[in-house]
Every structure is written in C-alpha cells, then in structure tokens.
Write a structure and sequence with these properties.
Elements lengths: L16 H16 L2 E12 L2 E12 L3 E7 L6 E8 L2 E6 L4 E6 L2 H8 L5 H8 L9 E10 L2 E8 L3 E6 L6 E8 L2 E10 L2 E9 L4 E12 L17 E4 L2
Parallel strand pairs: 6-14
Antiparallel strand pairs: 1-2, 1-13, 2-3, 3-4, 4-5, 5-6, 7-8, 8-9, 9-10, 10-11, 11-12, 12-13
C-alpha cells in the first residue's frame, strides 16, 4: 500500500519483543553518530548519462551536509551543495550561480541524486538507519541472502533494514513510499562504513559512493555548513 503512495496510514500495532530489541540497537547506533568527514568518490548513472567526481563530504547529525566536488587536480571546488537548517544551496563555481530552496526529498534528489529528507540522508551517509518517529508496525523478518531484517511501516513509507543483530551494523536499506524510493547496499570494513551502492527511481538512477580517509567523530565546526556566496553570484529559487 505504501509502495504505491497511498496516503492512508496503517493501524498502529504493538511491537514484538524481537523487533523491539532490533529497533533499540538501531536507535543506539544512530544516536552514537555525531559527524564524519571523508573524501568521497561518487559515480551516478541517470538513464544514459554517467557522471563521476571526487569530493569532500562533511556530515553532522542530525541534518547537516556539505559536499564539495573538486577539480580533477583536487585543488579547488567546482561545485558545492550545502544542506543545513532546512535549506539547500547548490553553488556552481564556474558560473558563479546558486540554486537555493527548501531541503526536501525532491530538491535533494535533483541536486544529489538521493530522494531523501535531510535527516534520512545523514543516516544513509553515516551507514545508519534512524527508526521512524511515526512508527506504526515493526516486524523482524527471517534471514535471507542479506541476513535478518526489520520491516518498518510508518505514516508515509515502508522501510526495510538489514542489520547485524549483535552489533546493530546496517548492511542494506530499502525505502518505499511517499517521494522516496531507494535501495542502499553498504560496503564495510568490520563495522566501519567504506561506502555504498544505491539505486532509485526504479533503477533509472544508480550509483556508488566510496569513502577515503574517513574520520568519524572528529568534530566539525557549525560554520562549515554556512555557505556565503561571492559578491555578484546569480541566485535562483528551487522547489
């Protein structure tokens, strides 16, 4: 029902003990995360168009992100995307032009390729899964080829999370319903995230993100998520 975008929310159900324990693991792992910084090799395939770049990625809980796409020599940014306090700013350095608007799943999909709300995007980039605040039902499903998983239904979507039931480490996430339709498969070294593959829009958009020189919990100054545009920069509203 949710995969089809139906607006009718399912009735709230008691959460079984096994699903509750798995939810608590997810919640602990999510609240452990503070920030990360890394070099990220990004490849996005949209239809027949393929784009790739290396960038500097800063992520801070609960909903702040800064991505700088670097020049081929890695000396200066070619483009920047900043998501902070509910606003998205995408700045093209060569054109001295910026697109500014609310940070929603729709605008983030246009600029980043991942149709997720800011806090969900932070969770994905951190290799976590944030339990939905409006949870209606939760069920722990038997292990398949990717291991055991939690099926979580909320007011607006259905989310399935594959995880290690001992550590809470997330290995795969599927989100269906509302504006978001995406699958994330993580690459890990032990419990440390090294990147992920993703597909969205019925596999029309696919790609990968590989992390290098990852630093977790190193601290990021809040001002790094404030983007001051150069004098004379052209701006355009996006929605």
């Amino acid at each position: 029902m949710l995969a089809g975008g139906c607006a009718t929310a399912p009735a709230r159900q008691p959460v079984p003990d096994d699903a509750r324990r798995a939810l608590e693991l997810l919640d602990v792992r999510w609240h452990e995360f503070t920030d990360l910084r890394t070099l990220a090799d990004v490849v996005v395939q949209e239809g027949r168009e393929r784009k790739g770049f290396t960038g500097v990625l800063l992520v801070k809980a609960p909903d702040s992100i800064r991505l700088e796409a670097l020049s081929p020599l890695g000396q200066q940014p070619l483009a920047l995307v900043v998501i902070h306090e509910g606003q998205l700013t995408a700045y093209d350095v060569a054109k001295n032009a910026a697109r500014i608007g609310p940070a929603t799943a729709e605008t983030i999909a246009r600029e980043v390729g991942l149709p997720l709300e800011p806090d969900d995007l932070v969770a994905v980039l951190a290799g976590r899964a944030a339990p939905p605040r409006d949870l209606r039902t939760a069920e722990l499903l038997p292990a398949d080829g990717s291991g055991p998983s939690l099926d979580l239904v909320s007011d607006a979507r259905r989310q399935r999370v594959w995880l290690d039931l001992e550590t809470g480490a997330v290995t795969r996430v599927e989100i269906r319903g509302g504006r978001a339709s995406i699958t994330i498969s993580y690459h890990r070294d032990g419990q440390t995230i090294r990147g992920f593959d993703f597909s969205a829009a019925g596999d029309y958009v696919t790609g990968s993100v590989t992390y290098r020189n990852l630093v977790l919990g190193g601290g990021i100054e809040p001002e790094r998520f404030t983007l001051t545009l150069p004098k004379g920069a052209k701006t355009k509203s996006i929605r």
